[in-house]
């Protein structure tokens, strides 16, 4: 049974209450935490959006979402009804003045509650909503503002958002979500590295040949095409989730788990990333876009058809990059990163490939010699595998074969893995920002990404096509193979 640390009673206002993120992720996450009694029934969840709804209408909408998105085994009828009893709605326009007084008077009924404002809207609204929160007197020492990604679409817009939010609240009350940091297996990277000293000596350029991070998705752009076509895989996944993974892998040990201690170390990694200048972007990056193909035997349309576009789009649904961290620990160790939609299956995996022995005593016939690898499977089937060379049993010659020391977290712990938003929402209420991005992290990540975007703009080539259901364009394979390495495919 998982340990539950209860949190204080809160009034959580969700702007964007009728949107996809709220319906699919936020309400189910809050329901699960309520069902496990992590927060008191004096808490309230207050939806806010422009759609004309009363409390009853919004509760019906929320119930429908919960029935659709919470697995049946977790849906307890009594808990569901009690949870819906905590749900309220106020019609509010984040860009106008309507609805604000009614929202604020609801909050004023319970001034002692912790007050998270979750901004699940388009980022253009973050500044205007924050200004209104301040102007209508809704902010105080117990308030926190939660910002969804993307924080901007480049450095300038990220700074504008951070500036606008920073004008009304101190940094300690601003929670920039990167939901990958809430995933159990991502948090486990810290445990792996800093609770197991056996790995520390190995975690170094002397021992590690290279690192691969793959975040593959089976899904296409779904209903978020409008946003995605303006963003692309580099902005949508690399600027945030994948760079955060890289930071956790590459950072030095923080002096404590205190939010700033961890974020100080992560930002050092971001600052140490070797810049990819615009004129080098074509050497160190590959962009791709899926065409029609098949996944799990089912035909799926291409990107353009998925979005219903009449003209070709230059947006990448796949990107592969070679990154390098200029530090003593990592000098000369490439980090190969790739992510894409409509790949053969959902799979997020980190591979550390170790150096081969400096001299081999085994004869050439000892076929099968491969480097040691540590595979960290983030999702699905969360676990780890250390691949080691062993002798194949038998009286014949000496044949070597990689065998794995496997740990399946699911089998080991035998319990449901909470969704990342469950953990992160409770951390917001607690005021613990360790798993959230600080302003300088977001801006430093943009500083590294921006010249790549600029390089792409200066050479506006169409992304390379890859068939849905494949591992991306062949140029991504060529990029790593030019270095004498290869993408490693999976724990299976
Ligand atoms: N969906 C996802 O899986 C993910 C989303 N995100 C981010 O979360 C945010 C929300 O995404 P998503 O839910 O998909 O977006 P949607 O487009 O589905 O929802 C947007 C929400 O904003 C509300 N809204 C729009 N304009 C206003 C306004 N002027 N005042 C008040 N509310 C307004 C809309 O309601 P109404 O029209 O009723 O006002 C709606 O509830 C975005 O920043 C997105 O990038 C991040 C990661 C994943
Ligand atoms: O933030 C995002 O993440 C999802 C992938 O998240 P996961 O938890 O399912 O791995 C991605 O589909 C989406 O495009 C992106 O905005």
UniProtKB/TrEMBL annotation:
<dbReference type="Pfam" id="PF02781">
    <property type="entry name" value="G6PD_C"/>
</dbReference>
<feature type="binding site">
    <location>
        <position position="50"/>
    </location>
    <ligand>
        <name>NADP(+)</name>
    </ligand>
</feature>
<feature type="binding site">
    <location>
        <position position="236"/>
    </location>
    <ligand>
        <name>substrate</name>
    </ligand>
</feature>
<dbReference type="InterPro" id="IPR019796">
    <property type="entry name" value="G6P_DH_AS"/>
</dbReference>
<dbReference type="GO" id="GO:0009051">
    <property type="term" value="P:pentose-phosphate shunt, oxidative branch"/>
</dbReference>
<feature type="binding site">
    <location>
        <position position="341"/>
    </location>
    <ligand>
        <name>substrate</name>
    </ligand>
</feature>
<dbReference type="InterPro" id="IPR022674">
    <property type="entry name" value="G6P_DH_NAD-bd"/>
</dbReference>
<dbReference type="Pfam" id="PF00479">
    <property type="entry name" value="G6PD_N"/>
</dbReference>
<comment type="similarity">
    <text>Belongs to the glucose-6-phosphate dehydrogenase family.</text>
</comment>
<keyword id="KW-0119">Carbohydrate metabolism</keyword>
<protein>
    <recommendedName>
        <fullName>Glucose-6-phosphate 1-dehydrogenase</fullName>
        <ecNumber>1.1.1.49</ecNumber>
    </recommendedName>
</protein>
<feature type="binding site">
    <location>
        <position position="183"/>
    </location>
    <ligand>
        <name>substrate</name>
    </ligand>
</feature>
<dbReference type="GO" id="GO:0006006">
    <property type="term" value="P:glucose metabolic process"/>
</dbReference>
<feature type="binding site">
    <location>
        <position position="346"/>
    </location>
    <ligand>
        <name>substrate</name>
    </ligand>
</feature>
<keyword id="KW-0560">Oxidoreductase</keyword>
<dbReference type="InterPro" id="IPR022675">
    <property type="entry name" value="G6P_DH_C"/>
</dbReference>
<feature type="binding site">
    <location>
        <position position="149"/>
    </location>
    <ligand>
        <name>NADP(+)</name>
    </ligand>
</feature>
<feature type="binding site">
    <location>
        <position position="179"/>
    </location>
    <ligand>
        <name>substrate</name>
    </ligand>
</feature>
<keyword id="KW-0521">NADP</keyword>
<dbReference type="InterPro" id="IPR001282">
    <property type="entry name" value="G6P_DH"/>
</dbReference>
<comment type="function">
    <text>Catalyzes the oxidation of glucose 6-phosphate to 6-phosphogluconolactone.</text>
</comment>
<dbReference type="InterPro" id="IPR036291">
    <property type="entry name" value="NAD(P)-bd_dom_sf"/>
</dbReference>
<dbReference type="GO" id="GO:0050661">
    <property type="term" value="F:NADP binding"/>
</dbReference>
<keyword id="KW-0313">Glucose metabolism</keyword>
<feature type="active site" description="Proton acceptor">
    <location>
        <position position="241"/>
    </location>
</feature>
<dbReference type="GO" id="GO:0004345">
    <property type="term" value="F:glucose-6-phosphate dehydrogenase activity"/>
</dbReference>
<feature type="domain" description="Glucose-6-phosphate dehydrogenase C-terminal">
    <location>
        <begin position="190"/>
        <end position="487"/>
    </location>
</feature>
<feature type="binding site">
    <location>
        <position position="217"/>
    </location>
    <ligand>
        <name>substrate</name>
    </ligand>
</feature>
<dbReference type="GO" id="GO:0005829">
    <property type="term" value="C:cytosol"/>
</dbReference>
<comment type="pathway">
    <text>Carbohydrate degradation; pentose phosphate pathway; D-ribulose 5-phosphate from D-glucose 6-phosphate (oxidative stage): step 1/3.</text>
</comment>
<feature type="domain" description="Glucose-6-phosphate dehydrogenase NAD-binding">
    <location>
        <begin position="13"/>
        <end position="188"/>
    </location>
</feature>
